[in-house]
Design brief:
It comes from Nocardia cerradoensis. It is found in: Cell membrane. This protein is mainly alpha-helical. It has 10 helices and no strands.
Length: 278
């Protein structure tokens, strides 16, 4: 009789390994494609910018080369790094205070009717008044030092975080609250185990929006009373007729805002993913 020899089955580990390699290659392909698209977009933007600078002239639009030269000049003089550091510190401090104070207020207003009825008129009134309207008062009340700038950034941030947190809190499914209550949770435990975790995505969204508005406010705050900062640098560019400095300030603000938001997104996704933050 002829013996029939069966070939051994391929190990399952080989199939898993191939699937893992396939996923890695697909991920690498997506990253490469995104990087190439970013590069292409940047090249296209520079081309359009250069054309507009050539068309309208250097007195209206500074070219990329002129802006780069101005940035190098400001960096060598130390003005650029000093301005970035000053503006970043003011934004982070005021924004952090807005998040730390706005989030608890939003949770309380979302869960306690009495608190909401008392504070809602003030929230709805002040959140529609732009911070630039309070620049003069901030200088009169808090002086020309750092406090006035931080207070304006705080004013910009706190209402956005509060409203976003309220929306996240009131949208919590009632069956979650009822289930926790049936299991014996008191009001404090309900806040800690159901309300706060459910409100975290809304708080993060409000924090990101507030960060963007903080950059809108910092320029007006620094233009009025500051001897350093991006806003002050832009104002000095106007006084000296250096439109290339103005472009440097605008671009630096955009880069700072992009970097701050990216860091916030990465940290939120890493440490708050269990709450549904992506």
């Amino acid at each position: 009789m002829t013996a029939i020899v069966q070939s051994p089955a391929a190990p399952a580990g080989n199939a898993n390994s191939k699937r893992t390699q396939g996923k890695s290659l697909a991920a690498a392909g997506r990253v490469t494609r995104t990087a190439l698209l970013w590069v292409a977009s940047g090249v296209l933007g520079l081309a359009v910018w250069s054309f507009l600078a050539w068309w309208y002239g250097p007195t209206t639009i500074a070219s990329p080369v002129e802006v780069w030269s101005a940035a190098v000049e400001l960096a060598q003089r130390g003005v650029l790094w000093t301005s970035i550091s000053a503006s970043a510190q003011r934004i982070l401090l005021g924004w952090s205070l807005g998040v730390v104070i706005g989030a608890p207020i939003g949770i309380l207003m979302g869960r306690v009717d009495l608190v909401r009825q008392l504070l809602d008129p003030y929230i709805e009134f002040f959140r529609f008044i732009p911070p630039i309207a309070f620049v003069t008062l901030a200088v009169v009340w808090f002086g020309i030092g750092e406090t006035s700038k931080v207070v304006l950034i705080f004013y910009t941030s706190v209402f956005i975080v509060t409203v976003s947190t309220i929306a996240a809190t009131v949208s919590i499914a009632e069956n979650k609250l009822q289930a926790a209550t049936n299991l014996g949770a008191n009001r404090l435990q309900l806040m800690k185990t159901v309300v706060l975790p459910s409100a975290v995505p809304g708080i993060v969204t409000g924090a990101r929006l507030a960060m963007g508005n903080s950059f809108l406010t910092i320029v007006s705050a620094e233009i009025v009373a500051a001897d350093r900062g991006i806003g002050s640098m832009i104002w000095q560019a106007r006084n000296y007729g250096r439109i290339d400095w103005t472009f440097v300030g605008i671009i630096v603000l955009g880069i700072m805002g992009f970097a701050f938001d990216r860091v916030l997104r990465v940290l939120s996704a890493k440490f708050l993913s269990r709450y549904g933050v992506k």
